[in-house]
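Lab notebook, bench 4. Still working through the backlog of constructs that have no structural model yet. Next entry is a single chain of 447 residues. Request: give me the structure tokens for it.
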Amino acid sequence: MLDTAPARCADSRKGMSKRLSSRIPYSRQWIDESDIAEVVDVLRSDFVTQGAAVEKFEEDLTKAVGVRFAVVVANGSAALDLVCAALEVNSESVGITSPITFAASANCLLHGGAAVKFADVDPLTGLMAPENLKALLESKAQRDNVRGIVIPVSLAGRVANLPEIQTIAKKYNFSVVEDAAHSLGATYTFGGNIYRSGSCAHTDAAILSFHPVKQICCGEGGAVLTNRRELADSLRLLRNHGIRRPSANGGGSQNVRPGWFYEQVAPGWNYRLSDIQAVLGCSQLARLDRFLDLRRTLAARYRNLLDRPHFKAVFRLCPQEPGHAWHLFVIHFFDGKRRDAAYEFLRERNIQTQVHYIPLNRHPLHVERLGETVLPGAEAYFRGCLSIPLFPKLSFEEQDRVVEALDEFCRRQLRFGREVVSMTRTSLSVANTTCSAMRSLNRANMN
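Model written out:
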């Protein structure tokens, strides 16, 4: 009888090799046939941009978030630029944001000419700490009598402490804009009521991003949300070059304007979203609740699988919080060198992770402006943070592969640590023995 064991082993190795060779990203979009069908319909229509789809997407967003107005734009960075311009941020302004965020949260303030400051974060959550904002405003606003804007970042899907930040900012006449690029679908509780991230219940405005790794995807896209009509009108004007088209009116031949008439009243931008992107946004938004359910299921499964002593000896998990939208699943290594080693260890196994974020105050641009500044909360958060794969289409098999790789890494690290301790003790013992022998020899020579 033919022995098929070697063949079975080869097949098993081939299957294992294929399983390990498939790349697991830290995040990615989920585009299905319904999304594709909506985009194809627009491509076959008369309007691929500046059509009815943009207004429909804006209406759907207001319902999903519970806000009065939504102004969709080309991307999340454009949303930040526009809201700063609409709130009249200028060279006399002070802009305050979190150091644990992407460059755009501060760039928008620099584009407006504002002096940019960083309010340090809670080292466990990475969210702006209200007490640090208060100290910054007390020292800056009272001394210089300045006005400006605060941009708290709702990081990784966890909403910033917006009620307390609003209370502090109002005292100094600062506007508040929530950077909700990570937190569409997240909620927070205040005064016994539940509020949605982006609802602007405790802010003047909020921004969203529809980049492929976010909760919903437009390819690229963003939005500004607000409950203030005049702010929404200003945003729409600035989104379209600062151009308006007054409606034709009667009352005499000299007042009648032809249909082609337009006038520029402000220096705006072309930050429009196309209909192609807008219909994709509408289609994705219809599945937001499903995406959130899947993210929360995967996050809960991670928390269960990583609740083991050898994991806890190497890293900790973020504090649990109701309403988290789980844009990212972040683990925090107690040792920054181990975080970097884990990044490489996982990368070698085709598992992509990411660090969110290098503190902004560390970047050359801001060092040149502010000098070398140390923000202890941001440094503590950054030192050990690592975002591991989490997205709605992540399978349990892929998630198990991530956990298995982390398991192998942690066991190796702990075993190596014990070996180092053992080697150190042995070396010390040998050194002590040698020293004793040398002292005895020296005494003998002296005699």
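Notes after review: The radius of gyration is 28 Å. DSSP finds 15 helices and 14 strands in the chain. Flag for follow-up if needed.
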